[in-house]
Amino acid sequence: MARTRFRSDRGLTARMGAVGLGLGALYVAFGAVLIYYSGSALIGLVITIGLAWGQWYFSDTLALKSMGAKVVAPEQAPELHAMIDRLCALADMPKPRVAVAVTDMPNAFATGRSPKHSAVCVTTGIMQRLDADELEGVLAHELAHVANRDVSVMTVASSLGLLAGFLMRWGMFFGGGRDRKNGGPGFLVVFLASLAVYFISFLLTRALSRYRELSADRTGAYLTGRPSELASALVKISGDMSRIPNSDLRDAQGVSAFFFAPAITRDSMANLFSTHPPLQQRLDQLAKVSAELGSA
User: Residue 77 region, left (φ>0) first, then alpha (ψ -120 to 50), else beta?
Assistant: First the structure.
């Protein structure tokens, strides 16, 4: 965890380390397959390193653009900036960029490669539905993601899945070089390797995503000292999410794993590969935090 006043979470640190090792092994193995079957080490290295670096370096910009969000100055959103200023001072951490997405979907997310290069985005829908204390609880939750650096790990995991998906679509081109020389099944090998990498990175992302949400709930609630406000925000947002059109939810699927609350369409397999823990589990945890703070 970055050096802040947020409570440390050894469980999250251990999980991020395990996911990081898994992703590193996947990168090496996938890069080796790509280099061999592309017929060109240069092509393989450029694709593997270039896309991964670009996704990591520009992660905050890409996430904000995917939601149509705009970075806002203090003059444009004074109350929102004031909340984040206070929380950052309380947590002793750098202030991220502040962005707003114009959409009725009530949500928020944090993104970025490091605490000094990050952004926190809220939607107009969440600002309209939550009161000041509830919104502050949500912002503390998102700042916890930045301080914990789990956003960076999630970004790397997502970029690997993006790379694998890209190569599954263009596997014929990359497999052609070795096929033409040796008659080997280059396309099939690259396609199957890409499919395996995509699936494994998908599972790694989901496993970390569920735990990191619980961790951010805890650390954010401890920072503000008002877990009940975060619980109230969760109930409001989860209830209103069912009223958002499926088309809007599908448009946000690309960053759903980063959201405060999951953007799940009614016809999706919500419980099989969910990016977030069940609502009741989050509420039960916040109730325990509240009891602990009350007895302190």
Answer: beta
